[in-house]
Each structure stands twice: as C-alpha cells, then as structure tokens.
Specification:
The protein is mainly alpha-helical. 66% of the residues lie in helices and 4% in strands. The strands form four sheets. The protein has a three-stranded antiparallel sheet with strand order 1-2-3, covered by helices on one side. It has a three-stranded antiparallel sheet with strand order 6-11-10. A three-stranded antiparallel sheet has the order 7-8-9. The protein starts with a helix and ends with a helix. One of its GO terms (molecular function) is actin filament binding. Keywords: Coiled coil.
Length: 1295
C-alpha cells in the first residue's frame, strides 16, 4: 500500500533505533521483525483512515442541523473523541456549528477533540443545574475542561440561581442547555453583581460612619456616592439629612438594644424621602407666613384672612368675624417686635411638624435647617407661632365676649348671691365672736385670780415651815456622814481582798452546783435538798406559754393550708380533665370557663364562715355548751383509743375509706402536726394494719396484689404530709440530674426505636426510606442500627439506675420514722401470720411497701408529687418521662427480684445487675425495719396528757363532725360490742345526729345544695378533754392519784426550805413566810393562766386546779392522805420516806429540758411545713394563671402563617385511587395557613378544577408520627406523614 509508506518508514526506523539501543552487533532486521513492523504500520494507518472518515461524517452531520445524527457521529468510537453526553446533543450541534461557521471550513480532528472536551464539561454544568446543589455547581464550573474563569465558591448559591434562571429562559425559547458563552456570562454577571453589592455595602457603611462623627458636608458627599445608589438626594437638604439620619440611627439602636446597630439601605432611603417631604412642607409653611406678613404690612384684611386660612400655614381657631381684630393685633405686635432689633434681612424661623427649626429668607427664598452665619433675624417679620398666639388671644377674647352676652342675666344673679353670702358670713362671724370669746374671757380672769391667791398661800406656808426644815436637814446630814464612814471602811477592806473573796465564792458555788447537778442527773435517790434547788425548772413560764400558743397557731395554719391545697388540687385536676376533653372536642369551651370560675374563688375568698350566733355549737347557752363538751369528749376518746377507728375503717366500703381517712382521720390527728398526734396516729395505723393482716390477708402475695386498704392509707399519709419534705430531699437531686441531662435518651422498645430511626432518616433527607412502616419486635431487631441503639440505651439505663440506687441505699435516715415503723409492723405481722415463710419473701413485701408504693411513683411522676418544681405552663417531655420510668422499672424489678425474658429478652443483659441490686435492697429493707418503738422515739407514756400544759386542740369542719357522728351511730354495735363501753355513753350524751345548720347556728339551710356544702366546710376548734378523768374524791385510779400527789409535792418542796426527806418536809410545820411564798406562787400562776387564756384558747388541765390553790399546811395534809392511799396499792413506801415520789420528780426535771427542745424543733418543722404548703399553693395559683391565659387564648386564637407550594412533586403523595401515575401531573395540592396556629386548609385541584377542602391540624400529624403511623389518607390520596411534616416545617416554620 503506497499510501502507508510513511507509516512503514516510521516503524522500521523505530525498530532499528531499538536494536541500536540494545547494543546488538548485528543491526540488520530479520524478515520476521520486518513483517511484524509492516503489520503494525498497516493497523495504525487503517485507524488513521477510519478517524478521518469519522471526522468527515461529523462535519457532514453538522451541515444537516440534525441533533441525533450529530450525536451519533460524535459517539462513533473510530473518531476517538472524549466521552459524549447523551442528553447534550443540541449543545454539541449548536456549538460545533458555530465553530465551523467561524472557521468557514470543516473542523479537523484536533478542533473537534478540544470542542467536545469543553462541551462535555459544559453539559455536566447543565446537569448540575438540574440537581440544584450549590456544591455540585461549583465543582462542575471549576473543572479544567470547562474553561470557566473567575469562579468564587462563596457565590455558589447565586451561580445556581442565575444559571437556573437563564436555563429556564432559554428552555422557553428553544433548547434548554446553556452554552459555554452563556455559562461564562452568568458567572461574570454574578461576580459583577457581587462587586456592586459589596461597593454598595461599603458606601452604606461609610454613611453610617460619618452620621455620628462627620460633618454635614461629609454626610452629603457620602449620600451622593454613585455606589450607594440613593435617589432624590438634594444638596440643599444636607443639614436636615444629617439631623434625621442621626436621629433614626439612635432610635434603631434603642429598639434593638444594640449600640452598634447600623442603618440599612432602605432606612437611609426612607429618611431621605421623609426629609424631602419635610422640606417641601416647611417651604410651603414659610411662604404662607411670608404672605401673612405682607398682608399685615399692606393692611389688607381680606388678604390676611385668606393667608391665615391657608392650610399650609397650620393655624387653628381662625374666625372670619375677627378679621379686623387679627389685623390690628398682628400690626401692633409686628411694630413692637420691629422696635426690638434689626430689620430688613428677610430671615425668619418657624418650627415644622416634627418640632425642627426652619430658617427661611422671604426675599431670596433661601432656607436652612441650621442657623448659618449669614442668617440674621429680621425683627419686622412675625413667625407662625407668634401669629398663632395673636390669633388665639383675639379669638379667645371674641368667644369670651359672646359668652358674656349670652349669659348676662346669669352673671348678675351669681354676683348678687355672692354679695349676699359675704354679708351673711360677716354677720355670723360677729355673732360667733360674741358667743365664743366671752366664756374665754371669764375663764382667763378666774384663772388669774386663782394664781394670785395660790402664790400668797404658798409664800405663807413656806415662811411657817422654814426653820423646821433646816433642823431636820442638819440631823440628816450628820447621820448620813456616820453611816457612810462605817460603810466605806467595810468596802475598803473588801476591795483590798476582792480577788481572794471572788475566787473563794466562785469555787464554793461551783463545787456545790456541780455536786447538786451530778446528784440530780445521775444519782439513784437524790435528796430533797438537791431537788429543791432545781424544782423551779418545772415551772411553766411566759416563754413556755408563748411557745405553746405559737405552736397551736402554726398547727391551725398548717391544717387550714392543707385543706385549702387539697381542695385546690382537686379542682385543678378537674380543670386538667376538662381541658383535655376540650382538646378532644368532648366538651365545650363554656364548661372549661365554668370550671375556671371555680378556681378563681380561691383568690377571691376572704375566709371561712363563722360559727356562733345564738344557737350554734359555740353559742353562749347551756345546751350548746353541753353538746360542745360531748363532742370534745367523743373525739378525745376516738383519738386516744385506736381500736374504734381501726374497726370503723373495715366496716366502711373501700370506695369511701380513702375519703373518710382524708376528711376525718387526718383532721382528728391534726395531720400529725406534733409529736403527740403523730404518735397516736401511728398507734391507729399499727392497730389497723395488724388487724388487716390478721383478718384480710390469706397469702403474703395478697399484700402486693390485693392493694390493702391500710397500706394505701399509710403510704398516702407519708407521701403527702409528713414524708413529702424528706422524699423531695432524697429524690430531687436524682430526678433533676436525669431530666436535665439532654444527652440521656433511654428507649428499649424495639418497635419505637425502629420507627424513630425511619422517621429520622425520612425527615432529614426528605425522601422515602423504602422500609416497611409496621413491624414487630422480632422484625425490628433484625436491623443492626436498632440493636445498637437499644444496647446504648441499656448501658445508659444501667448507669442512671446505679446512681439512683446508690443514693437511696445510703439515705435510710431520710425515710420518715412513721414509714419505717409501719414497715417494721408489717414485717412482724407477716412473721406472726406466716411463721414458716422465708425471710426473703417477707422482705419482698416490705420492699413493695417502701420502694414500689412509697418511692417508685415519685420517681415516675415527680411533678405530680412535688419532687421538682415545674411551672404551670411547662411539663416534662416524653423523653424525660420515659427515662424516669425506665429507671423506676429497673429499681422495681430489683426490689422484687424479677428479670427480663420473653418479649423483653433483648433487655436480658440487665438481669445480672438486677440480681446484684436485689441483694443490696434486702440489706436496705432490714435496716429500714430496725427502728425503735414510738414510746421511745416520741418520749410518750400514759401520763403525757395529764401533764400537758394545755388541752389538745383539733380543727375540724362541721360536715366532718356530722359525718363522724353518723358513722359511729351506724356501726356502734360492731366497733363497741360491749354496752358498758365508754363510746356508748358518749354517743348517748350526743343523741341523734343534727344537721349542719343547727351546729352552725343558721336556720336558713334551704338555700340549696351549694349553700349547705359551703356551710359544711366551716371549721371550728375543739379543745379535747377526757370525760372519764378521775375526780378529786375518786381514789380508784392510782396513776392519776400519783400524778396529783406529785404536783402538790413539787409546790411544797419549792416553798418549804426545811427537811431532808419528804417525810420530814411533810411533818415540819410551815412558817408564815413559807405560806406567803406559796400564796405568791399561786397568784403568779393564776396571772400567767389569765394571760394565756386571753391570748388563745389554751387552758390548764382543770383536774388539779382546785387542790393546787390550797394553803401549804392543808396541801401537806392532802398529800399525806394521798400517799397513804397510794401506799396501799404498793406504788410507794413510807419505809424509804416515799423516795419513789422524789425520783419521779427528778425524772420530770430531766425530761422537761428535752420537752422544750422538742417543742422548739417542732416549731421549726411546722414553719418549714407551712412554708412548703405556701409554696405549693403558689404553684397552684400559677397553674390557675396559666389556665386563665389558656382560656383567654382559646377565646382569642389570632395568628397567621405563609402559603404552601406544590406537594405532588416532592414525593409526599404515595398513591391516588382511580388515577394512574402518569396523571399525577394534573393534580395540584395547595396548603394555606389559617387564623389558628398549627391549623391549615388543604385544597386539591384536578385539571385546574377546585375540589373539596380539608382541614389539616399539625398537632394531629405529630401525634400520628409519635404513634408510628407513617401513611395517612387524605381525599383519595395516600400521604407520607413524615415527609408532610418535613414540608410544613420547612415552608411555614423555617425549620
């Protein structure tokens, strides 16, 4: 082939050179080598020939204007061109044709190769535009093959917008692909636009800089910058621009509370426009004022009126009837003003609408907003304000004259009445002088006469006694001198030995005091002489009474506050229910408003009703008094004998027991507000619990599964009253640590974790995940992501649980004593009922009481049990509640020794931890039960009530009294089967149950049920007393006799100073001084009792009051008789001189200090309780405010949002019934925000025709997503819930 000669030559030369390089001696080519070179040359020549043919075919296709043929020719592999994009056929044809036309000849291979390489890169740019991703756009533009220059990555968004806009424009006019020139042009356009914007920003920044610091000329120059692109800038208004811009900038800084706030372009442009308008108005005003001056100068009344009525001059109160007066007044004022200064300059100053000064020259028509050097005031011109002053004065005088003319008769009448009034007043003053001054004159005269006579008498008396006083005085001075000399000698001696005397006295007193105190506190049988020195400590002083009064007041406040909070909490719970029903459209808004009015009464109420009158329970009548005492005796018996109430609890239906406990039992024991009531309440709980275990519990599991009545009462009492503070102290730090940890998310439910994972993927990406939406636990656990999340949650759960468990196990001291003692009673009762039961099973029951019933609920719902402070308009999130519930569940399993299995087998890794925690829990429950008896803990015994300063007082409502009386009558045969039981006698004293109105003293009880209920809530105080207390003459009760004897012995020992034993003291006669000391002691005690009675209802026990007033000798005889009676019973003995009585008194002295300490501690505890109750009430009131705001919001409902776009292009619509997918393009969904926040109206159009409207509630969508529902139906379409939420967040809430 002769056409391939050059290829043969090149190949052979290459082979020869290769042989030479390989140092072959024989450089001749063999036949085989030459044949191989020929074949290679043939292949290379044939490929070149085929490429030339392909290039020729490409040029021919370009001449035919056929996109497909051109694309096919370019894709010919023999052409050996770069990669061709299938979608860019029009782009290749268009651009290559342009290259061919510019060359005016066929394109060769190199030109085609370079062109295709560039156009393929441009095609990738077009493809990136369709993706609408700024980062992809920048990457495609930055490709070297694209040959696009000046690319700035920061302008990626703008490149995308301009390129997309240009492509849409081109698509409407032909091909939709951008050429290289268009792409480069768009890039240059964006770069230039960015430069212009940067220049404009710099110009605006410069304007902001010179506003505060620059001059007016600098501000004007900055406003005239071409790069600022500001309109209508007038050089004459530069000063005004500067002033208003500075004011606008400061105002914006105040609004934004940012001193660095700058004016934006629109702010500056608006200020310029406002200034121009202001200048125009100011010029019009000044021209109108100048016209008025000219009219005054010429004396033309009509022209003056026309000028004054010109709206540009902004005058008011102008009346056409006063034209001449206006002219005269202005002429006079103008002449007077002209005489005060220079005239003829033509400059005057007027204030515009905003108060700014505006200087205007009526001659040259120049103006300025600042007083320039050439501005000189022309005193011959009047300003607008001066004109207004003259007009107002003239108009006022005109109006006043018209008023006088219209009311001339009335004015004359008023003047005449005033003159008459003045005349009468003058006459009355004269008469008053005559009647008032004359007695004073007479009195002054008589006083002066008295003074004169007294002076004469005193002078005479002094004269008569002057010598006698002198003698007495001399004698007195002599006696004083002698006595002082003897005393001073004695004092000098003591001063010389003062230190020694003091040391001796101190040492002796110290030894005697230590010896006596040691004998008192530690001696087996302290002598009477020692007891006598300390017996005064048993006296009840003013401080004791004051503290007792304070304690009783605080108890009353606590009881009242507890009742109020309970009623308020119940009504708030009802409000929660009604609002929930309102949200679900189960009730109307009117029902919620009605309940809201009920809440307001707690703030509007000023107190409870008063009980009294002439016929009430506390009326001043014998019948009322006897009934009151009968109730006091009855409630004392119920309070001190727990058997009655314990039996009554089990006689009542369980549905009423809780209410009965809250309304009567806690009231009867004053909500355990002091040690006595708490001690008695624990005795009741103990009796009732032992009875319930003995008679109601058949298996130990009944305590756990049967919800025992007494256990529920015990837990309710300890959680809501006594134990609330300690429970909060124990759990508050733990709960807050869990809910405040934003990184703590515990969810061990495989289905929920799966759905959250799918929702998160779809919400984040905006695309469907392709995974099924409904799965079971087994299917969910097949996904490794779900398993990883659950394992992570289990590890977090274990860590959180361990923190809570460690604190609980180390805080036994924070569990209330009453709760620990009830656990001990329950443990002992179960041990007695089931002696063969293992200890571990009994401890499980104890754990159910301590942890599950008492602690667990407070962890699960800390806001409901006041463990944490939550605002009325706030609540715990679902994640926070799930975290707390998960921790509580693990602790519950540990307390009951349960593990995970079956459907919860994915949580089985926690079983080993649960077993270990159970072992620790058992030790904890044993420590809980290790507690002392109430008698030791509260220092109570059978003598406590007899030795109390005051009677126990309870605060109880009338309705509770009636209900208790009624229940006792119904069940008296059951709770007191013995007819001789004291309860029957007390109920017989009371008789039949009376109604509420009779006890209150109000006979008008027919006003309806609501009135009866309100009267039933009226509270009274009952001073409880024991009807069966032993009288003085009754010798049957030895313990009471001993107490009476001991009290009298204390008085005798204190007043009689002789005798070393009690027998000696009683046998030695009392002296008169000792009798007098005893009388003083009685009177002092009576005065203290009277003061205490006046201040409060506290009353000393009356059983001993009479015998404590006996004279000392009679009291000693009474004591001897009582001692003989007690000795017969074997309690004391005369052989040891009745030392047992003295030892008992010593024990009382020792306990008195402890009692006072307990009382002070009780005051502190009650104050803390009251403070907590007030805080809780404040929280409830905050909830009331929140509910008020909620109801108000329900009535207002004002807010709007923006519009929505198409939905069918976003992949949200999954399917439409009876419509094939190729018809989806004819369906359009539009979402519009409504007046109600979170509520949207969805409109559907098919082929442009409106269909029905549907209301879409955003809260309902969130609920569906929370429940795991991923697909909902709307119209005939199936909608992806997650993607719809994603769209609404993006379009309406900017998320």
């Amino acid at each position: 082939m002769k056409n391939l000669g050059k290829y043969y030559m090149e190949m052979l030369v290459q082979l020869v050179n290769n042989h030479r390089l390989n140092n072959n001696e024989d450089q001749r080519l063999t036949k085989d080598v030459v044949q191989m070179a020929v074949r290679a040359a043939n292949v290379e020549g044939d490929a070149e020939h085929q490429r030339l043919l392909a290039v020729r075919a490409i040029n021919e296709a370009l001449e035919k204007d056929d996109d497909e043929e051109t694309l096919k020719a370019l894709q010919n592999p023999k052409a050996k061109l770069p990669s061709i994009k299938n979608f860019a056929g029009p782009l290749y044809r268009e651009e290559l044709q342009c290259m061919k036309q510019e060359k005016q000849a066929s394109l060769d291979y190199d030109e085609l190769y370079t062109g295709v390489q560039v156009l393929s890169a441009i095609a990738e740019v077009n493809k990136a535009i369709e993706i609408k991703d700024p980062e992809v756009i920048v990457a495609s533009l930055s490709e070297e093959d694209a040959h696009i220059t000046n690319i700035e990555p920061d302008y990626a968004e703008k490149y995308l917008q301009v390129l997309a806009s240009t492509r849409e424009h081109k698509k409407r006019h032909g091909s939709g692909l951008l050429t290289h020139y268009m792409v480069q042009h768009c890039v240059n356009q964006v770069n230039n636009q960015a430069i212009e914007e940067n220049n404009q920003i710099q110009a605006i920044n410069k304007i902001n800089d010179v506003i505060e610091e620059g001059s007016t000329m600098e501000v004007l120059a900055s406003l005239q910058q071409p790069t600022a692109r500001l309109r209508n800038v007038d050089v004459k208004n530069g000063a005004c621009y500067h002033s208003l811009l500075k004011q606008c900038k400061r105002q914006k800084a105040e609004e934004l509370q940012d001193t660095t706030a700058a004016l934006w372009y629109q702010d500056i442009q608006d200020t310029i426009d406002t200034t121009n308008i202001l200048v125009q108005d100011a010029v019009k005003l000044s021209m109108a004022v100048a016209a008025a001056n000219m009219a005054v100068e010429s004396g033309d009344q009509n022209n003056l009126l026309n000028s004054l009525m010109n709206p540009d001059i902004l005058l008011h109160s102008v009346t056409s009837e006063c034209g001449q007066q206006y002219l005269s007044s202005l002429k006079l004022y103008k002449d007077q003003k002209a005489a005060t200064g220079d005239c003829g300059s033509g400059w005057m100053m007027n204030r515009v609408r905003d108060g700014s000064k505006f200087y205007f020259n009526v001659i040259t028509k120049e103006y300025a907003f600042e007083r320039l050097e050439q501005v000189k005031k022309d005193h011959s011109l009047v300003t607008r304000d001066e004109i207004q002053g003259c007009i107002s004065e003239v108009t006022a005088a005109h109006d006043r004259q018209l008023l006088f003319k219209a009311n001339e008769k009335f004015i004359v009448l008023v003047q005449s009445r005033i003159r008459g009034y003045l005349a009468r007043r003058k006459y009355n003053e004269r008469v008053s002088f005559l009647y008032t001054r004359l007695p004073a004159i007479i009195k002054i005269q008589s006083w002066w006469r008295m003074i004169c006579e007294r002076r004469k008498y005193l002078w005479r008396l002094s004269f008569l006694h002057s010598h006698c006083e002198a003698a007495i005085k001399i004698q007195t001075f002599v006696r004083m001198y002698l006595q002082r000399k003897r005393y001073q000698t004695r004092v000098d001696y003591f001063k010389q030995n003062e230190e020694a005397v003091i040391k001796i006295q101190a040492f002796m007193r110290s030894n005697w005091a230590k010896k006596d105190y040691k004998a008192l506190m530690h001696g087996v049988n302290p002598p009477v002489s020692v007891v006598r020195k300390f017996v005064h400590l048993l006296d009840i002083g003013d401080q004791d009474y004051a503290e007792e009064i304070e304690v009783e007041k605080l108890r009353q406040q606590v009881v009242t506050e507890i009742r109020t909070n309970q009623e308020l909490e119940n009504d708030l719970n009802m409000m929660d229910i009604k609002i929930g029903l309102l949200v679900k459209n189960r009730i109307t808004l009117q029902d919620v408003i009605s309940q809201n009015k009920t809440l307001k009464k707690y703030r509007d109420s000023s107190g409870t009703l008063s009980v009294g009158g002439n016929s009430g329970l506390k009326a001043l009548s014998k019948q009322s008094r006897e009934r009151l005492e009968a109730y006091q005796h009855l409630f004392y018996l119920l309070q001190t004998n727990p058997t009655y109430l314990a039996k009554l609890i089990f006689e009542m239906p369980q549905s009423r027991t809780t209410k009965f406990m809250e309304s009567v039992i806690l009231t009867l024991y004053n909500y355990a507000s002091n040690q006595r009531e708490e001690y008695l309440l624990l005795k009741l709980f103990k009796t009732a619990l032992e009875e319930e275990v003995r008679s109601k519990v058949q298996q130990m599991s009944d305590v756990v599964t049967g919800n025992p009545m007494v256990v529920k009462m015990i837990v309710s009492f300890n959680r809501n009253t006594r134990g609330q503070g300690t429970l909060r102290e124990l759990l508050n730090p733990l709960v807050k640590a869990i809910i405040d940890d934003r990184n703590l998310i515990i969810n061990t439910n495989p289905v929920e974790v799966y759905k959250q994972w799918v929702n998160q993927m779809e919400t984040t990406s905006g695309k469907t995940s392709g995974l099924p939406y409904e799965v079971n636990n087994e299917q969910a656990l097949k996904h490794q992501e779900v398993v990883d999340k659950i394992n992570q949650s289990l590890e977090l759960l274990k860590q959180a649980t361990e923190k809570v468990l460690s604190v609980i196990l180390s805080s036994v001291h924070l569990i209330p004593y009453s709760m620990r003692y009830m656990a001990k009673v329950l443990k002992n009762s179960l041990r007695e009922k089931f002696p063969q039961a293992p200890e571990k099973d009994i401890l499980k029951i104890v754990g159910n009481l301590i942890y599950y019933r008492y602690i667990n609920s407070a962890i699960v719902a800390p806001d409901a049990f006041d463990i944490i402070d939550v605002g009325a308009n706030k609540s715990l999130t679902n994640d926070q509640r799930r975290n707390l519930g998960s921790v509580a569940k693990i602790l519950q399993f540990a307390a009951s020794n349960k593990g995970f299995g079956g459907d919860s087998s994915h949580q089985a890794p926690l079983n080993s931890y649960i077993m270990d925690a159970h072992v620790r829990f058992k030790e904890y429950f044993l420590e809980i039960c290790d507690v002392e008896e109430p008698e030791v803990h509260y220092n109570m015994d059978q003598y406590t009530d007899v030795t109390r300063i005051t009677k126990p007082i309870i605060y109880i409502s009338i309705a509770e009294i009636v209900d208790t009386h009624k229940l006792l009558l119904q069940h008296k045969d059951t709770i007191a089967p013995d007819l001789s039981d004291p309860l029957h006698e007390l109920l017989d004293d009371l008789g039949e149950v009376t109604d509420v109105g009779s006890l209150i003293g109000d006979s008008n009880t027919d006003d309806g049920h609501h009135s009866k209920v309100n009267m039933g809530k009226t509270e009274i105080s009952l001073a409880l007393s024991n009807k069966f207390e032993v009288p003085e003459e009754d010798q049957s009760d030895v313990k009471s006799l001993f107490l009476r004897t001991k009290r009298m012995v204390v008085d005798v020992i204190r007043c009689q100073t002789h005798g070393e034993t009690l027998t000696e003291v009683l046998n030695i006669p009392a002296t008169q001084d000792e009798e007098n000391d005893h009388s003083l002691l009685i009177r002092k005690r009576e005065r203290m009792d009277q003061r205490a009675t006046k201040k409060t209802s506290l009353v000393r026990q009356q059983s001993m009051a009479g015998e404590m007033r006996l004279p000392l000798e009679q009291m000693k005889q009474k004591i001897q008789a009582l001692l003989r009676e007690i000795e017969k019973q074997g309690l004391v003995s005369s052989k040891d001189n009745y030392q047992y009585v003295i030892n008992s008194i010593v024990q009382d002295i020792r306990n008195q200090r402890l009692y006072r300490q307990h009382r002070k501690q009780e005051m502190v505890r009650i104050r803390n309780t009251l403070k907590s109750l007030e805080s809780k009430r404040a929280f409830f009131e905050e909830q009331i405010d929140y509910y008020n705001q909620y109801v108000k919001t329900c009535l207002d409902n004002l807010s709007t949002k923006g519009n929505a776009a198409k939905l069918h292009e976003k992949g949200i619509v999954l399917d439409i019934e009876e419509l094939p997918p190729n018809q989806f393009k004819n369906v359009l969904f539009e979402i519009h925000a409504t007046e109600n926040v979170g509520v949207f109206h969805v409109y559907a159009k098919f082929m442009g025709v409106n269909m029905e409207k549907v209301e879409l509630v955003f809260q309902d969508l969130l609920q569906l997503q929370y429940e795991g529902v991923s697909v909902m139906k709307m119209y005939k379409a199936k909608i992806n819930v997650n993607l719809l939420i994603f769209l609404l967040n993006k379009k309406f809430y900017g998320k």
